[in-house]
Design brief:
single chain, 253 residues, mainly beta, Jelly Rolls, 2 domains, 9-stranded antiparallel sheet, 8-stranded antiparallel sheet, 20 strands, 52% strand, globular, binds (2S)-amino(carbamoylamino)ethanoic acid, binds manganese (II) ion
């Protein structure tokens, strides 16, 4: 039997109001100050998004050094471990840990285990008059409570950033767990944007009027007002981590 791989095939698709980006198409970028690593800019303004989503794999000599400037930086450790230095702290973080660094902060990530992989979201901070910017957060997913979503005990939500009662934050990052067979209770259509990475499992995502089989490792961008729905398939829970812009909705005209 002939086993030639068809290299012209990919599930990746980039549409006007959504994208599915799978790892087989990743091509590395050079980010000044980030050395000894492979950086994939999976979602960005170049695509039409209002934020960036990166997946970075570090060697044991990898160093990510810079200043956040106008964009805040959130990263989640997908694999491995590394050390993070900010103006006020030095911490060792490992798989399942996450770090939020507000705007205009120097940072250095180094001393990584070979293959350490980070998912990061970068968003320009929108100042809210009279409200101070958030502080640095270093925490673990395991310490965050799972709450029932939309009254369905098979949908579990973890809010990694304190978005709902803290107007300092203009972005949320959540981890959403669907038990086998669970699904979003309705097709959401909202002004907020999403960037997403599958951490576990598989299912079917509806984006606009298209339906995509998705699995661990896949990334999705959803533009504002992109109709969206997900149903989990298979025998293990489907889990994704996602970004959402919050707390800065426009004035109602
Ligand atoms: O928070 C959300 O809007 C979330 N339920 N959306 C999604 O999972 N596509
Ligand atoms: Mn949504």
């Amino acid at each position: 039997m002939d086993k030639i791989k068809l290299t012209a095939l990919s599930r990746t698709t980039v549409e006007r109001n959504h994208a599915l980006v799978t790892g087989d198409g990743f091509v590395n970028s050079v980010v000044p100050g980030w050395t000894g690593c492979e950086v994939n800019v999976v979602i960005s303004k170049a695509m039409g998004a209002g934020f960036s989503q990166l997946i970075t794999t570090m060697t044991s000599n990898g160093v990510l050094e810079g200043e956040t400037g106008a964009s805040q930086l959130f990263f989640y450790v997908l694999e491995g471990a590394c050390t993070v230095i900010t103006s006020s702290q030095k911490n060792r973080v490992e798989k399942g840990s996450y770090v939020y660094i507000p705007v205009h902060e120097a940072y250095k990530v180094f001393n990584s285990e070979e293959g350490t992989t980070l998912l990061s979201f970068h968003k320009e901070y929108e100042v809210l008059k009279g409200v101070s910017k958030p502080g640095i957060i270093i925490n673990t997913q395991a310490s965050i409570e799972k709450t029932i979503y939309c009254g369905d005990p098979n949908l579990l939500m973890q809010n990694l950033l304190p978005d709902e009662n803290n107007l300092s934050f203009d972005m949320a990052v959540n981890i959403f767990t669907y038990n086998p067979g669970a699904n979003l209770p309705f097709v959401e259509t909202h002004i907020m944007e999403h960037g997403l990475l599958y951490l576990q499992g598989q299912g079917i995502y509806r984006l606009d009027d298209k339906w995509y089989p998705v699995k661990k490792g896949d990334c999705i961008w959803m533009a504002p007002y992109c109709p969206q729905w997900f149903g989990a398939l298979g025998v293990e829970p489907a889990v994704y981590i996602y970004y959402k812009n919050v707390n800065r909705l426009p004035e109602i005209m």
